Amino acid sequence: MDCVFCKIINKEIPSLIVYEDAKVLCIIPKDMEVYGHTLILPKKHFNDIFDIHNADLQDIMRIAKKLSIGFRTKLGATGVNILHASGKDAGQSVQHFHLHLFPRFKDDNINAWPQLPKKNFNKEEVLHGITFMDGI
Ligand SMILES: [Zn+2]
What's the 89 CA to ligand 1 centre distance in angstroms? Predict the structure, then answer.
């Protein structure tokens, strides 16, 4: 498998490691777009949200919370954004599940929340298509 994140996890490619344990590796990405921008990777290869095992996702989210608290105490961050893409149409660039964690600071002028044009969808019709009230 030719996965750049697996190569980083296996130390075939050097990286700047923020945190590592038996299941998770957190690194500074090649292109750091925000001060403290960190990638959180499961050490096992999963393509995306559709195939990651629940236990591995829990590990990832547990570390996302720990790093968020760490950014607050070590960097003085006042908030975080957690960004994720699953699938090419969602903008996923590396096919190995990962989260982007952005520490946020007062007046940092980063717009990590896209401004989407308002559209008048029929909400009842949409709800009919996506309701899971009868179970998932
Ligand atoms: Zn991989």
Answer: 19
